[in-house]
Amino acid sequence: xxxxxxxxxxxxxxxxxxxxxxxxxxxxxxxxxxxxxxxxxxxxxxxxxxxxxxxxxxxxxxxxxxxxxxxxxxxxxxxxxxxxxxxxxxxxxxxxxxxxxxxxxxxxxxxxxxxxxxxxxxxxxxxxxxxxxxxxxxxxxxxxxxxxxxxxxxxxxxxxxxxxxxxxx
Length: 169
Known about the structure:
- The chain has a 7-stranded mixed β-sheet with strand order 1-2-3-4-5-7-6, with helices on both faces.
- α2 (33-44) packs across α3.
- The chain has a single domain (2-164), classed as Aminopeptidase, CATH 3.40.630.30.
- A hairpin with a 2-residue loop joins β2 and β3 (68-76).
- By secondary structure, the protein is of the alpha+beta class.
- Helices cover 35% and strands 35% of the residues.
């Protein structure tokens, strides 16, 4: 059975490990190896993870089955002082994809957003990432594009997607 737990600083090495195991499979067809390594270090060094949680207010959750960690997500409630929850990250180990883990993580993120009285989920996704199809299937709509300069000559070329989460009456 999939269990979703709150991540603490103790879990940062686990999050880092999942990212390093997931990113090559996710991005090797769309980003150079150098860009993947650069972005992993920028986003998943232990110092970067600590800054995300302690300074930026990101909350990480982990999906696990038994003793094995299979994926993680990161959210920021009340993003930019609005009633929206930003999904900063969601990654599932390649061998664990297609087993309902993404759905379980999204259900947990949606519940947390609703508990904070947030009415939308927001996310950015690389325009060539196959996950865009999954996001569309679970109700996200593309509302724009962004090209974000992340330094070292690299850009994130993303779709901006959102999903209304106000329960229907």
